[in-house]
What we know:
With about 350 residues, the protein is an alpha/beta fold. Helices cover about 40% and strands about 20% of the residues. It has 11 helices and 12 strands. The protein has helices at about 15-30, 45-50, 60-65, 90-100, 170-185, 200-210, 225-235, 245-260, 300-310, 315-330, 345-360, and strands spanning about 5-10, 35-40, 70-75, 105-110, 130-140, 145-150, 160-165, 190-195, 220-225, 240-245, 270, 275-280. The strands form 2 sheets. It has a 10-stranded mixed beta sheet with strand order 2-1-3-12-11-4-5-10-8-9, with helices on both faces. A two-stranded antiparallel sheet has the order 6-7. Helix 7 (about 225-235) packs parallel to helix 8, helix 9 packs antiparallel against helix 10 and helix 10 packs across helix 11. The longest helix has 18 residues, at about 15-30. The model has no long low-confidence stretch (mean pLDDT about 95). It binds 3-isopropylmalic acid and manganese (II) ion.
Amino acid sequence: HKKYKIAILPGDGIGPEVMQETYKIIEIIKKKLLINIQTSEYDIGGISIDKHGIALPKKTLIGCEKSDAILLGSIGGPKWDILPPKERPEIASLLPIRKHFNLFANLRPSILHKKLNYLSPLKKNNIKDGFDILCVRELTGGIYFGKPRIEINKKNMHYAIDTSIYHKYEIQRIAEIAFQESLKRRCKVTSIDKANVLYTSKLWRKTVNKISKKYPKVHLSHLYFDNAVMQIIKNPNQFDVILCPNLIGDVISDECGSLTGSIGMLPSASLNTKNFGLYEPAGGAAPDTQGKNIANPIAQILSLSMLIKHSLKMNHISNLINTAVYKTLLKGFRTHDISHDKNFVTTKEMGNEIVKSFIEEL
Ligand code: IPM
Ligand code: MN
């Protein structure tokens, strides 16, 4: 029997709570489907600063290196917001771990099922048929990593600098991912940029156009960022794969995720070229709901599903998890973020219901 190793990094905020619910699914996969999964937990983020004085310890990196994939909870919180930018958990752990493993390809699927379309904040006639959008976000380049970065650190300094830089190869490889993914779907790619203003966007557009020549079956279009935000709200169903630079993808994926009802249901996969990946909810630490047993565990559970699909290559199990989540929602179970009234279940109850639905699928 093949043995799979998953490094689990619960992190901060609601991370540990929603991770507990995800463990329940892992247990069922081990016990009922007899898949040999070995999990090991490591510290990251604010909690790691508190425990070890460092946001991304060597031990965590080594543990991740020895694994087939990483399942991450979330990182950051108000407690560490007072730290200088360089020491903040996000900058000192999340960005470096993405860079360390070269996780340039960030996949964020936002699906609104037709039968659940009333969960969306959009008016019903705009989303009659639901939607199924895959955001492909470049994750290790652009303004997040460009140098120089200069913060205001002197008393009389009146400026700060971030640098946006894209190399051709960085655009080529993420565009390839978007086109490849679209072939498995509806063969449509919309690339988003600000090519009317930014030089990096001009290079982006030109490079994506070149790559598209290899994919004659795929319909490619380009939208400016401001217009794209609007078009997505007006009619999300017209989109299939959306390809974005790093910062633009950060915004667009939150937008698409929230149109499904809550970004508490938005999972993500960050991949390198070797199917190695880090899987995490896209919504973040949500410190305001931390410790109240009300957070939505769906994004974390769907992130596990993506891990099983992309890194462990067990599509059928991934599909079973997705179906279990969908069925649990169809049965009417709602956490507070997707409930329209005072009737909502706790994090643990939602987890248990998804486990029940999962077992029904086996
Ligand atoms: C995300 C998050 C991160 C990002 C933050 C926490 C650094 O918002 O994964 O979308 O901006 O990439
Ligand atoms: Mn984000």
